Predict the structure.
Amino acid sequence: MDEIEIINKVNRAFSWLGILISVIVFIYLLPYTFSNIAGISSLPPSYFYLFFHPNITEIYLLIILTMVFISISISSIVYKTKISASFDRDNNKLFFSFFSVYISILIFSSVIMEIIYPPIAHNKVYLYNYGIQNFIFSVSSIMQMIIIELIPITLLLLIYFTISKNLKLNSFLNPYNHIKSVLPVFIIIIAGVSVFIASENIYNSILLYISTIVLTFIYLRFGFLRALLVNFSSAGIEMALSLFSGNFFISTALSIFLFIWAFLGIYTISIIYVTARVNTIKKNKEEQDREESNPEDVTREKNNEIINRITKINPNKLWIRSSCTNCGSVEFKLHDDMSLQCLKCSNVIERDAIGPYNIVINNYPNARR
């Protein structure tokens, strides 16, 4: 078992423990939340996204919705199907590692921000009783995912897939492979939207921006339900710290657990980066050695690879960049042996005379087989 495997297993254990703590605290405080519905309905509008002020019936619905989403999100890492990235158990190994990375970034950025701006540690949420706190932490984490993540990302994906002509359900359920090349753009835009919707001051905005960057990556890479579970768990642990703040032993144990988890996340980032870097250097070195020892074999292998790729391409999408050596025409017929026949003067150019590098993918109507 290599180091990466060990780290992933430890990340899985810490993540499951964090999820368990959050769920237990949420369920334990649920009766207190239901008994404080009137108090919740009188909360200032700033505690609800977009200043939505729900009535008592809507509060009950929000709590039930939260319970449903939590149940489904937990089942997403147990139930296996390829329909959605959230339910793909092949994602579990990396998911738990990035769960730890999110916790580490959240904790260390919060600690740094408290040093820079101490008043940020005094959250007004802690002035309310535990039933109301439970509603604010748990329900807000779900509403945050829907309003700040799900809706903006879905709209952004809709625009992107419409432009790229890839508008289908599977693209939305498994977006990562379809948007990998523009992933940083998506992350930056969504983080900016989150600050615009929910920020209070510059310090909270910075914390929100940083956390949303990682959370958006988890959403796009591992699915919406996985990101929702991560957000709910981090909020639940914060609720647990508030609940047991008067108990020295439990609060100390929770704090130690969180900081070990946070350092584990930092270590995971380092291991992933170093491993990727070493593999890249090793691969480049092997290719360089192979090219130096057998340059003709390497060239032939590359040419064959290009030719094999070309033969699978629709001939109507091939563009011959070279011109005919006899008349200068750029319109050719492509034969099965990859030779080119000029459509103007019928001059035949052997494949090796031009080389496979002169054939590229493009939409050129006159290039035909």
